[in-house]
Amino acid sequence: MTTTLAPPPPHTTPPRPQTAPPPEDLRALALRHGLTVSGARPPLPVYVRQLWARRDFIAAFATARLTAQYSQARLGQLWQVATPLLNAAVYYLIFGVFMNAEHGVTDYVPFLITGVFVWTFTSNTLLAGTRAISGNLGLVRALHFPRASLPLSLALQQLQQLLLSLAALVAILLCCGEFPRWSWLLAVPALALQTLFNTGLALALARIAARTPDVGQLMPFALRTWMYASGAMWSIGNLAHDGRFPEGVVLALRCNPAAVYIDLVRFALIASHGADRLPPHVWALATGWAVLAFAGGFLWFWKAEETYGRG
Question: At residue 250, what are phi and psi to the nearest 5 degrees?
Fold first, then answer.
């Protein structure tokens, strides 16, 4: 048997591997066809317009969260009023009775309840800000929208809750002999400035907590310390009269933004504290804190727009 050898295959040149175009060419191609980076940070004016276009979503999200907050409780939305009232009762027992903080404070019950309600507004808004991104990662990763919508919605939710709680505060003031007068209108700009201040801090905390979720665990301790330094349950003015603390410490406590907003609302609602002739610079200080916190918090949050939901 003879074996026939197959002729050798013709000489062929292996195909050259295709090389990708340089990144500069790809970027130019994408821009030429209107493609942009997913989740890229838009310019600030565009970002503001996007937020304004989603104002209905921001309001609806805030209302839905407010409605669902106590949906599993038997008393339902009554807890929005009952919670600060119970806190005020506990603080009155501790500070008013045991620690005699009402000494030298006229109309201590309205003084205390007003301080607790105003402080609760700030505290709840900041706690909500720490959960704005980290608590809604599914929404952040699934949809493309301005991420500032979330902390703004949660801040609006706390404002809605405050407005409901103010009905109880007014009822308590009436029971304590405080009746409506023109100065009550000053509570509106005071609370508006506080809302701007709270929202700015909530935006800043939302960015921090998005990268470091443990911040949410530390916030209750930081807020409790801040509350004690804000005069919600005791009078900062008494420190100045006692002379036990240096003037610099008393001045720092008076300039504390939480104390400033508490003082403004007390000045507006409580006649005996309005007679103390609140220094005129307090309104300027409240406005400065509000503008600084909101502008700084908003800009700082916007600068990290591309990073939310990653990792």
Answer: -65, -40
Q: Please report the DSSP string for 147-174 in residue order.
A: TTHHHHHHHHHHHHHHHHHHHHHHHHHH
Domain ranges in the chain are 42-307
What is the C-alpha separation between 82 and 89, in angstroms, rounded?
10
Maximum distance among all alpha carbons in the chain?
Answer: 126
Q: Is the dihedral of CA 187, 121, 204, 301 positive or negative?
A: negative
How many Å apart are CA 96 and CA 158, to the nearest integer?
28
Name the residue with tokens 């503008």.
291
Helix or strand holding residue 48 (H, E):
helix 44-53
Between residues 252 and 239, the one the model is more confident about: 252
Taking each helix axis from N to C end, the angle separating 187-211 and 149-175, rounded to the nearest 10 degrees, works out to 140
Residue position matching structure tokens 């939901």: 309
With 0-12 CB in 10 A as exposed, 13-18 as middle and 19+ as buried, what is 310? exposed
Three-state secondary structure call for residue 234? coil
> pLDDT tens digits for 206-233?
999 988 888 888 999 999 999 988 888 8
pTM: 0.82
Grouping H, G, I as helix, E, B as strand and the rest as coil, residue 230 is coil
Measured distance CA(103)–CA(131) in Å, rounded: 39
Q: Name the residue type at position 217.
A: Q
